[in-house]
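To close the section, here is one more complete example, presented without commentary so you can practise reading it yourself. The ligand is flavin-adenine dinucleotide.
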Amino acid sequence: MGKSLVLVGGGHAHLTTISRMKELTDRKHRVTLVSPLPEHPYSGMGPGVLGGFYAFEEILFPIRGMVEKAGGVFLQDRVTEIDPRRGRLGLASGGEIPYDVVSFNVGSGVHDPFVKEPSFRVFPVKPVENLHKARNRILKLANEKGEVEILVVGGGAAGLEVAGNARRLLGGENGTGRITLVAGRRLLNDQGTRVRQEALRSLDDRGVRVMEGQRITGIREARGELEDGSFLPFDLCFLATGVGPPPLFRKSGLPVGEEGGLLVNECLQCVNHPRIFGGGDCVSFAPRPLHKVGVHAVRQGPVLHHNLMAALEGGSLRPFRPQNSYMLIFNLGDGQGLLTRKGMVWRGRVAFFLKDFIDRRFMRKFSAPFRGMTRSS
Ligand SMILES: Cc1cc2nc3c(=O)[nH]c(=O)nc-3n(C[C@H](O)[C@H](O)[C@H](O)COP(=O)(O)OP(=O)(O)OC[C@H]3O[C@@H](n4cnc5c(N)ncnc54)[C@H](O)[C@@H]3O)c2cc1C
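Output:
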């Protein structure tokens, strides 16, 4: 008699299990994926959607189709509560589902403590579909009023990519509209001097104003307030102020790390509930803190897949060994990439081609056999 496995969230860390789900259903396990969307957008290509390098449809993994083709069940819903004692998950729709083994890959949300009221003008960079929505809104605004004023709050990798791609959307350096990026301390503060200089030069050359040493302290209606009391008006604002796990785990009384991510051991297993696993941005890896990057989430995928199978069938678990260094390539929005690895820095078209090649290959790897499975299939 098979067991019941529930995957919560169809993010990067679950893609291996979703694409190899038949291995589980063939062994009579019942597998359910709970996700608010039938398709999962690939974040690495998200800024490229904003800039128009990719159509939104090109960056979607058809997770619903993948699950159903493998004999699993897709539930379009959101998990709002976890009851580890009873082995049940509460759903936003009001229902409950039982599990023998559950795995969480629900990603992260953008920190927005200073947004004073909900606004249709403010777009957090996560979930990634917001970048597609923002693109449509910017095009509409540009059509209606010509000049569009865009504010980007946050000077990390997402802020850089979003500002550069918004510039491209507004017609590059000779285009219309204005883009201001408020970086907090410095643009790409956790990177080396050369990376920072290249990033600054790239934005500066295209007329994107970067404000370093300044922070936004409040966002009200159509203006961002700075620490010194002055403000920046905007038509559309991107929030790229860093990400953190959702409150789900803390709220459910599960063990969490400092930021509220599900606390997992080296086998990606919850430290005191052996039937609960997790990967990606939503977990706190007990052996050492990990950056919230897709690279880790993707590499956790095969380990999670192995360990979920082991938990269902009584096998031994495998540890996840995070890479100490990895390559980063930022999409600057002008056809150039900014690559950095182990102190090496390289800006240019070839760096962008390399990123594009890696990202497209990743998309193909997981979704090529399932292409054509769209929202309605
Ligand atoms: C603009 C931008 C660009 C980036 N570019 C890169 C890059 O080039 N390279 C890189 O390595 N990293 C990049 N990152 C970081 C990367 O996005 C994250 O580290 C990565 O998405 C984490 O993957 P994940 O699987 O944990 O979560 P996600 O990919 O966010 O997936 C989480 C999934 O869970 C679903 N979900 C959420 N809540 C629930 C719930 N309650 N119940 C059920 N399902 C739920 C969501 O709908 C989503 O499908 C970028 C981030 C941003 C914001």
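Once you have examined the tokens, check your reading against these statements. The chain has a mean pLDDT of 94. The two ends are 30 Å apart (CA to CA).
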